[in-house]
Amino acid sequence: MDTTRLARIWSHRKVLDTLVRRDLRVRYARSWLGYLWTLIDPLAMGLVFFFVFGVLLARHTGANDLVFIVYLLAGMLPWNWFNNSINETARALYAERLLVRSTNIPREMWVIRVVIAKGIEFLLSLPVLVLFVVLVMAGVHLGDGDVSLNWRLVAIIPALVLQFILCIGMGLVMAPVTALVDDFVRIVRIVLRMLFYFTPIVYAMDLVDDKLPWARDLMMFNPLVGIMDMWRVGLSTTVEVDLAAWGTAAAISVAWLVFGLWVFRKLESAVLKEI
Fold this sequence. Notes:
By secondary structure, the chain is mainly alpha-helical. The chain has 13 helices and no strands. The protein has helices at residues 3-11, 13-28, 37-56, 67-90, 92-95, 97-102, 109-137, 156-180, 184-197, 205-211, 215-219, 224-232, 243-274.
């Protein structure tokens, strides 16, 4: 890992703050509802998935419960951060090509600023999850279920850190490759759609263990498996901690960061010639 480049990024942190503020300001500049869209979008999608997976399909299992929305949102909201970050970082260099060429700030910052901005939007969407947690704990149930906050909520901190590292690492690969190969952004979108269903968002890993136990080892290569577990363990005492998934998520996330910094450094000169 190039510590000199990291030091340059840190020395320009005030510029990074300005870029993030600009992104957030532009996003809501012409919107009447502004920040409320960060609540409306996940709430709408959560209700749709709840209706399909928690009501229609659950009739076969009797699992119809408001608790399912809590479980679903605890996976969907972090996924939205990841999905939006990867999609936007893939276009980060090309979309800002005039500034990328003309400014002398570390070009990795054009990727990092996207991840931070999307991370702030993610944090602003968390009241949707809090609302349903409060409803369930207040006794508003549609069936049987369990939501009980516990000390394992502290796992949210490593979940935030690891997802931040993962998004930056992957973004540092996506941005220069997409700038050089335009079709790559389409591949990214296809892979993200597939990855959504290979990540335990609308289902639990227990289901994989029951139906396809051999698939667990393959899914462990997806760091989001462990990260999703971290987001959820503090919401219920019945969810067991998967330390193997946590360790794998940490190792792969850090590996992506190291790999991303290396790829970005190798392709930076070629990208500047192309854009």
